[in-house]
């Protein structure tokens, strides 16, 4: 089977999405998502979007490489880093070197931009998965290894049914004790927004601040954001529905490190799940946490189960 590997051209979109749906059946997207997370990404560069087509100009493979053109926060362009966020070859065209040729061009694109590393796929804001799911895509994982990528760490996705959720009595008692100590747990108001986004940006991850800001601009109700505060200062927060408007998707979620160990995260998490259940939601899920982290243990104690495991990979020039 003959093919060519080239860079993205206007008009490729429907073909890429159709090939994506066939090649990555457990992680399909639609044209709207491709538009918002690829074409409208401020870091999108057609030279980093590598497309393989057959003799009929039908898309049979795709690889997306990115470097920062716009900083996530302040002036940080992460000048050492590039990313590949997705790659695939249609099943009938595999094992012909198509993936390797696409990666050759993707690596060349990142290298010419002066970057030292390529990550798969810990990119913000528009990642599709935290990393490669070895169980779901063993061929893809082995391909990355052959391409010289090494595994750095393995975040997990978790899900929980809300049908049986109630706030445990111990959490209610803990909230009462913390209330007597001056902590308050409440739905976010306009007065919280600047401080909340700054806390997310500076203490946690600039992508969290972006998710909160853009979520609200897209219509995220303030009642889906919970904050913990003491002495009129925010010390923790959690929310749901911020990412792409998906109400069952939880996060971001964090407690100021200076206040950790007091059970504030436990209170916020349980209250948030209660609010979700009150809205009639049946499930809650998120894509990324460390399974053995403090947050990971809290999620498990709250009834979450690991549903997927990913490997964040890195290539060094």
Q: Spatial order of the strands in the main sheet?
A: 1-2-3-4-5-14-6
Give the count of helical stretches. 9
User: What does the largest sheet look like?
Assistant: 7 strands, mixed
CATH topology of the largest domain: Aminopeptidase
Q: What would the average pLDDT be, to the nearest integer? A: 97
How would you explain this protein's 3D organization?
With 317 residues, the chain is an alpha+beta fold. The chain folds into two domains: 126 residues, Gcn5-related N-acetyltransferase (GNAT) (Aminopeptidase, 3-Layer(aba) Sandwich), CATH 3.40.630.30; 118 residues, Aminopeptidase. It is built from nine helices and 14 strands. The strands form three sheets. Strands 1-2-3-4-5-14-6 form a seven-stranded mixed β-sheet. Strand 2 and strand 3 form a beta hairpin. Helix 6 runs antiparallel to helix 7. The longest helix has 15 residues. The two termini are 31 Å apart.
Defining traits:
alpha+beta; Aminopeptidase; 317 residues; elongated
Could you give a short description of this structure?
By secondary structure, this protein is α+β, with helices and mostly antiparallel strands. Helices cover 32% and strands 27% of the residues. The chain folds into two domains: 3-128, 3-Layer(aba) Sandwich (Aminopeptidase); 164-281, Gcn5-related N-acetyltransferase (GNAT) (Aminopeptidase, 3-Layer(aba) Sandwich).
């Amino acid at each position: 089977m003959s093919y060519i590997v080239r860079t993205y051209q206007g008009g490729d979109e429907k073909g890429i999405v159709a090939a994506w749906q066939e090649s990555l059946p457990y992680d399909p997207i639609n044209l709207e998502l491709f538009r918002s997370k690829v074409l409208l990404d401020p870091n999108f560069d057609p030279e980093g979007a590598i497309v393989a087509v057959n003799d009929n100009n039908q898309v049979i493979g795709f690889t997306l490489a990115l470097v920062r053109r716009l900083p996530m926060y302040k002036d940080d362009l992460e000048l050492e880093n590039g990313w590949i966020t997705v790659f695939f070859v249609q099943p009938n065209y595999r094992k012909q070197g198509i993936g390797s040729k696409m990666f050759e061009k993707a690596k060349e694109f990142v290298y010419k931009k002066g970057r030292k590393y390529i990550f798969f796929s810990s990119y913000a804001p528009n990642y599709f998965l935290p990393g490669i799911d070895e169980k779901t895509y063993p061929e893809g994982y082995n391909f990355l290894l052959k391409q010289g990528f090494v595994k750095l760490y393995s975040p997990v996705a978790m899900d929980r049914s809300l049908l049986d959720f109630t706030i445990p009595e111990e959490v209610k008692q803990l909230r009462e004790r913390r209330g007597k100590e001056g902590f308050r747990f409440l739905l976010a108001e306009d007065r919280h927004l600047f401080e909340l986004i700054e806390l997310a940006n500076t203490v946690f991850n600039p992508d969290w601040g972006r998710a909160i800001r853009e979520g609200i601009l897209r219509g995220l109700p303030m009642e889906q954001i919970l904050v913990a505060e003491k002495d009129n200062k925010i010390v923790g927060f959690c929310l749901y529905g911020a990412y792409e408007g998906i109400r069952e998707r939880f996060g971001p979620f964090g407690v100021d490190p200076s206040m950790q160990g007091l059970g504030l995260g436990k209170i916020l998490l349980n209250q948030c799940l209660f609010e979700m259940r009150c809205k009639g939601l049946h499930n809650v899920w998120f894509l990324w946490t460390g399974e053995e982290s403090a947050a990971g243990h809290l999620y498990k104690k709250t009834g979450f189960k690991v549903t997927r495991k990913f490997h964040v990979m890195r290539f060094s020039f």
